[in-house]
Amino acid sequence: MTASVAPVAAAPAQSRRPRLVYRFTIAERLLHWLFTVDVVLLALSGLGLYLPPEHNPVLEKRALMHSIHIDAAIGMMVLPVLFIVLRPDIMVRLWHDVEWFDRDDWRWLRRIWIPGFLRRKPLPAQGRFNAGQKLNTIAIAAATVGFIATGVIMDYGARLPPSWSDAADTWHIWLMYLGAPLIAGHLALALLVPPTRPALRGIVTGWVRLDFVRRRHAKWAAEVAPEDTGT
To answer: How crowded is the C-beta side of 123, counted as CA atoms within 13 Å?
Structure first.
């Protein structure tokens, strides 16, 4: 399914129920939630391996934490490959939506840091993903590659020069520190911030309100519901 043919659920006549737009397919949502479960397993087992003995409630289960961490890391590597093989259309669509930044995206990134009441101009219209979501997706993908690469070097450190293992360990920890704010910000925008909270419905059910799409993703609204744009 392409963005240009995303269905719009029509509200019955004289109904006050909002119209909905199909934003994420079942496969896209499955990819998101499987990745989320994997990240949670990696984060919790990683903390069990990282915390010092005096502050580690699972110290006696360190071997189990290591096994969970390795298995989750393998899952992290297999998941995108599995979707590339089984649903290449989904991965191509995601790549197409995320990798290209046009002038409106760059303008959006420059203006988003200015409080709304101080902005002289509105935020530029955005597509299915806004520029911030694109950056977040790219950053998480890059961090995932970094975690896997450093993790492999750490796990096979005995066969490599000590400097490699030490550097991999340092970067693995730094990636954890750098990735935590990305995940925290993602959760805050999805769960706590009123203007962006309606997007959560999309990754749960696939559908989002058309009025939300018009406000936050006007370019995409013009593609999926052109008859409603500007009305």
So the answer is: 22
CATH 1.10.357.10 fits 27-195, yes or no: no
Alpha carbon 19 to chain centroid distance?
A: 25
Query: Is there a contact between 229 and 221 (Cβ–Cβ < 8 Å)?
Result: yes
Q: How far is CA 161 from CA 25, 70, 153, 164, in A?
A: 46, 22, 10, 6
Give percent of the chain above pLDDT 90: 76
Residues 7 and 22 sit within 8 Å (Cβ to Cβ): yes
Listed in sequence order, the residues at least 6 apart from 7 whose beta carbon sits closer than 8 Å to its beta carbon are 21, 22
**Amino acid making up residue 111:** R
Asked if 220 and 213 touch (Cβ cutoff 8 Å), the reply is yes
Question: Which pTM was predicted?
Answer: 0.86
